[in-house]
Amino acid sequence: MTVRSANMAAASDSPKSSVRRRHVESRTTETHSARSNSDNGPNAGGDSGKDRTRVSLQTGTYWLTRVVLLRSVAFIYFVAFSVAYNQNKQLIGEQGLMPCKSYLNNVKRYVGGKIGMAALAYTPSILWFLDWSDMNANLDNIALVGMALSGFVLVTGMANMVIMVTLWVLYHSLVNVGQLWYSFGWESQLLETGFLAIFLCPVWTLSQVPRRCPPSPICIWLFRWLIVRIMLGAGLIKIRGDKCWRDLTCMDYHYETQPVPNPMSYYMHRFPWWFHRFETLSNHVIELIVPFFTFLGRRMCMVNGAVQVLFQVVLIISGNLSFLNWLTIVPSLACFDDASLGFLFCSGGGAKKAVLEIQNEEAAGRTPKPNKGMLIRRVVNISLGILIAYLSVPVVINLLSPRQMMNTSFEPLRIVNTYGAFGSITKERTEVIFQGTLSNDPKDPEAVWEEYQFLCKPGDVYRRPCLISPYHYRLDWLMWFAAFQTYEQNEWVIHIAGLLLSNDSTIVSLLDRDPLQGRGPPRWVRGEHFKYKFSQPGSASAAQGKWWLRKRIGPYFPPVDLEGLRGYFQSRNWPHPHIPGHNRS
Q: Where would I find the Lipase maturation factor 1/2 C-terminal domain in this sequence (predicted)?
């Protein structure tokens, strides 16, 4: 600076030097002005094309992607914990169909009668450490805490490791004691997605854009690896499974025979045959080819993300598949960077403005040097990548195996899992219909049998299919499986019959309508087996208001009464429904 000042002073007497000095000063002023505009954020650059370029989001960063991912994961957690709060007491509570207290006691006996590392490794759950005297309260409290924390992240877009670890541990605790009711693939998928979300966050800081904790590209790529595995698993299980996936006829049946159809399923089932062929072929392309776009650069990766999101939206529209499709959208969002997701944020909003400031600082070469915490975080992210790569080995081997397993975990924490859906398609829809009568003699031809209606599954042929996704009725879903099996394979069906005979509020709360309400409990309950199919739009049946047509197949289980079920219940250590004050252990 001294030399430059001396030279300028020596030349100040000549006209040329004066002009040169004015030019230098002018350039210096413009440089300071540009830096000032950059520091002032997106609104400081005026309307020139040069300034608009300066305030646009750059590619290759994932600050806003992190906000979108965290909010999306929080939304799914909120729905899952809401389902748990409303249904867990009836399904796995103290008087539930499969009490988790009995399950934990069985595990305890299996591992030697002690609650230690063996029990925790076999069934990871914080319920081991809680008071079992009021298990219903434990289940409710876990669900309520989960709803509160996920609601906070959803509304604010802010999270830290403490919150995300807590959500993951709480849901893990429910899944691992949920038994049959939590045996679906989306439970493991939520746990894997939630585990990855932990590493998006700073340890303590609550901020949408924590400057000292930039999103790790490793973590973003692990989300992308998740969506690749989900789609390949779903596609390969179809190709290796039902023949109808190979001859492109599966969609002729799917809308009608899926577990819980919605109103759009009724109309989509009647699409022309050529459109169903196109749907099936498109499904194979989206699940088996498009995922590889992830590895072909930014634009192709975004194409994969957009296709997968649109595909899941179509599936959401076409049926009630719990929160599965909503959850599958989450890792697809990792295919987009800040530049592509900026439209979701207000131009003057805090998150977008903060990201612009960070990007401008980086462009100006003013990136702060990494501190000790940031260096430790890099080591953690690299370790996470190595862990996921190691745990992915059996998953990839499974994908390549002709005996592919779907929805399987190879370790108790369910960090990396296999996925797949609808490897086989049922060609006919059957339903189990519970019926009760007040008649003393079930064989009396004049006995009036009245039907119990579930909350969502088909029953009354005049009832419109429900629309509940992303919410989920676990009992209704399991009744779909029971319908193409036998009651001997699903003993909980007889348990339901016993509870209906005693008019138990636990099971009645899971139903839409009790036909005998106000007239006392039924004397007998039976299960009838029916074949269901959609009515034809525009037909006489549809004009009468029928959404379904049905034909009786035969009895699913014979008429039963409380006294006749006594031995059945005792042999399974179930309390006899009419005995008051009998506790399950």
A: 415-558
